[in-house]
Each structure stands twice: as C-alpha cells, then as structure tokens.
Amino acid sequence: MHGDLHPANVVVSDGTLSGIVDFGAMFAGDPAWDLAAAWVLLPAGTASRFFDMYAHADEAAIRRARGLATMKSLFLMLMGQNGDRGLPGGKPNWGPVGRAALDRVLKGV
C-alpha cells in the first residue's frame, strides 16, 4: 500500500488516474490508509462504490479509513493555511482540497 494518497501524490490525465508518486511511505499494513483516499481523492458520492469494489473493505476498515481521511483532510487544510500565510512549505491550493475532502467525510459520501 502507498500509505499517503492525497492530491499531491497522484497524477491525473483527462480526468482519469494515470499514476501514483511519492513512494517514500510505501509499506505493508492496514489497508484503511489507502481506503481513506475514497474521501480525499474521489468526487462526492463515489466512496460507497469504491468500497463495494474493494475486496477487503469491511465496516471496521471503513471506520478506520474515515478517521484517517479526517486526519489527512485537516493536514491539507493546515498546509493551505500555511501557504496563505506565506510560511515555508505551505501550499495555498491545498486548503480548498482539504475542506472539500472533510466535507465528504462528514457527509459520508
């Protein structure tokens, strides 16, 4: 598993996922880390379909993924705030992505 799927670590071409980058955190472990991408990367309303297609997405894994997605969303929002403030390493365009992901997590879509 990748372990750190968020918008800066995926490559999209013509609206289709075409690659994944930044494998510094690649490891074996809890699939919930990658399942969290359902809320962080995918459009609203697609998480349940994603889980249906994933072979090992039981309810406990989905609950863990929801918590991890919340954490990743907050991280993206913080990086966005840091960018807005001009702080080193800040990414102003990450804030809206994090807010949208958190909204999807909270709505369960």
Automatic annotation (TrEMBL):
Name this polypeptide is given: Aminoglycoside phosphotransferase (APT) family kinase protein
Q: Does the keyword Cell membrane apply?
A: no
Q: Can you tell which superkingdom this protein's organism belongs to?
A: Bacteria
Q: Which Gene3D superfamilies match?
A: 3.90.1200.10
Positions of the Aminoglycoside phosphotransferase domain: 1-68
Give the Gene Ontology MF terms in alphabetical order. Answer: kinase activity
- Which is an annotated Pfam family here? APH
Q: Keywords of this protein's UniProt record, alphabetized?
A: Kinase, Transferase
InterPro entries attached here? Aminoglycoside_PTrfase, Kinase-like_dom_sf
